[in-house]
Design goal:
- The structure is a homodimer.
- Chain A is about 40% helix and about 25% strand.
- Chain A has 14 helices and 17 strands.
- In chain A, β7 (about 145-150) and β8 form a beta hairpin.
- In chain A, α3 (about 55-65) packs across α4 and α9 (about 265-275) runs parallel beside α14.
- The N and C termini of chain A lie far apart (about 60 Å).
- β2 (about 45-50) of chain A pairs antiparallel with β2 (about 45-50) of chain B.
Chain lengths: ~425, ~425
């Protein structure tokens, strides 16, 4: 059979009136596009349509004529405006059949407190007879992989990004890898960087960006940059042996800017380093308002290392919880090197930890002054080595939440760099 | 062409290979969609295509057959992969003509340090003869408004969001408002709900979901549900008068599940309620690990109400920071009604606040037992009325981060409901 899908490629269709009204940003299209690129499947077109059966029909029919695979997101919920499965089935005149095993699964997932079982959820168990189910481990909206006509496969996902991602990774990726090409294997690896701008990093590795195999592509995020290395070879072993020298070369060029690989996060890297040293961490944060603690505790097993945090958002709490003298705050201001160092040292004592990160700054939009503008953030790290402080100016043009997120990244990264230095 | 399909509506086409590779998120589509909704122009379709002349041609031709207006973004730059203007002109066989006034403008904008004038920029001054120019006050890529055939107008913008926005506001909006004069105005409003599942809410308002004008559509998020009400009328005043009775009806049916409208968040609603009462809030959180504090402090001006939080992630910090007796923890476990109530009461004292929320649970993936499984979370609220506790089972099938987010929402919502009850 001809498996040369590069002729027609993969198309993404996101379904939801909220996208047409601009209520939400289409993060699913970005995620799927990035994933398709990473497994090397050609992708030439994305579309968005509302929760409207007639227009959805038109668009699926159009796609069936030009593409081999159509990936849809949205419209799998329990309410009447969720139309994806029945609309697609009706186009190809396939009756829907209940899948009793899905009903058992949904019943388990609904909260036991709930009075009675909403009958509307039963809608979510009907699929075309020959469709393969994509189980949804974290929600009630299962998807499907269905080939209704020759050389055209539809893969459906719910619109909730976290549910889509898990279903994509667990069920769709293995199917697509198998579909793509039995002759080639594609292996990719992500190197993660912090403390360096995308353009600066791209300049440092400019000679490698034109590589054909393995390829190298930079991506920017909030406060961090990723490099994706992708190798194509006959098998995984060969692909990995193409990636190894490229990774070594990149690490040599970029030094300690590279903090981790693949699914590692700054928080997980810092926690692992401290766990290996048998040391503990506490936080004292003001302008980040709990963001450093929340980021650390997203990591499973954080409790081995992270013992606690003090969100001292007011001057009163800085005094009462940390014991910062009111004279120090009055003299230097809460956003100052003196106060942030006192916060870091007090956190060591109060939380009985080996290390602490302290942050105090102006996240805005209000509260900025000429000498202490929005975006000015003081940091201090205290640990067995003593206490170090530094200051960042993230710029008053940034939004509050961006300044908070950049501060979280910067605080964690500074601790990471101290640990790398071996202090 | 099928004469039964009458052309209508506005369509958005975003041009750029970086979108197909998932390198960037399509924020322009969201912006334009929201703007179109706000001026009441019907918008049924969005598409994305790469920097490829052949596929771009196909998509513009398709749009010309079904839509009245096509808005494009991207492909107006000076480099060879910027193809939009010439490709569109070639479809309708219109020659391009230089606009000398644009060249004067570009020369002024190029940096004076620049050695010589980049000839490539000259590309940006060629447009179809009858096109109206959309000046770009902050960049070199001008756009156009061009009606190449009867009942089909193309409006082009560069891909840089800040340039697009200014050109949209200054030139496109006045043109579109004039165009839209004979059309209808669309006004929409979002009602936000917590503590109720999407399917349960949809059943409660089932009779209204089939309304034609105004329409009603439900959307689910993590721990919250939205209903979007959309009215179509001759003008804004008439549209609002259609929305008012529907909103009143919905609020009557759903009671206190509805926590806010449009851009409000649970955190902003709770903060506003406490600000009006002149009362303050503190947090003691364990399994949510700082998430409640971080969510509250995303709201500008949170510091009026939120004084501080204690992230007591370890038993040691529960004892040292909050003064919870070790016997209480040993007897009942850290995840228990007794401990969470003690945490809430201690937070009132330590943080010198009027209200507190305390949370302790098992976020997983490890740490679950038969009696205290993953997803079991205890909450307590303390305030002028005394102290109340409750328990949730979010289910062990959920991921750690989802359990943390649901717990944040539930804790804030419980405080909101107490305030609504007027305790």
């Amino acid at each position: 059979m001809n498996k040369n899908i590069s002729k027609n490629g993969v198309e993404i269709l996101c379904i939801g009136t909220e996208l047409l009204l601009g209520n939400i940003i289409n993060s699913n299209a970005k995620y799927l596009a990035e994933e398709l690129a990473s497994i090397g499947l050609p992708h030439y077109r994305q579309s968005v349509v509302g929760d409207n059966s007639k227009r959805l029909k038109e668009m699926v029919l159009e796609a069936s004529k030009r593409s081999r695979i159509l990936i849809t997101t949205g419209g799998l919920g329990p309410t009447p405006d969720d139309l994806t499965t029945e609309t697609i089935a009706s186009i190809f005149k396939s009756p829907l059949k209940a899948r009793p095993e899905l009903w058992e699964d949904i019943k388990k997932k609904l909260s036991p407190n709930e009075k009675g079982m909403p009958l509307s959820n039963q809608k979510q168990i009907f699929f075309p007879e020959k469709a393969t189910i994509i189980p949804n481990p974290t929600g009630t909206a299962a998807g499907m992989i269905w080939t209704p006509i020759n050389q055209f496969t539809i893969i459906t996902f719910p619109g909730v990004p976290s549910e889509l991602k898990r279903m994509w990774q667990e069920t769709a990726i293995p199917w697509l890898r198998n579909y793509a090409d039995n002759q080639h294997t594609i292996v990719s690896k992500i190197l993660r960087f912090s403390g360096i701008k995308e353009s600066t990093l791209a300049e440092q590795v400019a000679d490698l960006l034109t590589n054909e195999n393995p390829t190298l592509a930079p991506y920017a995020g909030t406060g961090e940059v990723k490099l994706r290395l992708t190798a194509r070879a006959k098998n995984t072993e060969e692909a990995l042996s193409l990636l190894r020298p490229l990774e070594a070369n990149l690490r040599k060029k970029t030094g300690s800017y590279c903090y981790g690989v693949d699914h590692e996060t700054l928080a997980s890297v810092v926690i692992n380093q401290l766990r290996q040293r048998g040391e503990t961490l506490g936080i004292a944060e003001s302008c980040t308002g709990g963001g450093i603690c929340a980021t650390l505790t997203e990591t499973p097993g954080a409790s081995d290392v992270f013992l606690g945090g003090l969100v001292v958002y007011s001057n009163l709490s800085k005094q009462k919880i940390l014991g910062i003298p009111s004279e120090l705050i009055n003299k230097h201001g809460a956003v100052s090197e003196h106060v942030v160092k006192a916060m870091a040292n007090a956190a060591l004592q109060k939380l009985h930890v080996d290390w602490s990160i302290a942050v105090s700054g102006v996240a805005g939009p209000g509260g900025g002054t000429k000498t202490k503008p929005v975006g000015l953030v003081h940091f201090a790290i205290a640990g067995p080595f003593g206490c170090e402080s530094f200051v960042e100016r993230f710029g008053a043009h940034r939004e509050r939440i961006a300044i908070q997120k950049l501060s979280v990244v910067r605080g964690l990264d500074y601790l990471r760099l101290l640990l790398v230095r071996g202090v």
